[in-house]
Amino acid sequence: MGFFELILLTFLVVCAVAASLNKNLLTSIVIFMSYSVIMSIIWIILESPDLAITEAAVGAGVTSVLFFVALKKIHAMKEENDDEN
Length: 85
What we know:
By secondary structure, this protein is mainly alpha-helical. It has helices at residues 3-21, 25-45, 49-73, 80-84. Helix 1 (3-21) runs antiparallel to helix 2.
């Protein structure tokens, strides 16, 4: 295993632990997005481009957007206008 792969796997574990232990939901979503990007890079290294594209599109893209919409619906994210008043 190369040095780059070891760094990616270490960062993958760190992202998984940080996303689950973080109290702020918005920060957890951003960490989850970085987890998905790292996982797609690992899929590219493993020479599986179809899984890499799927992980990037679904994991970092669609799922994160759905999480942001869910946070907005439950009012966990404040709107910009509320912060100004």
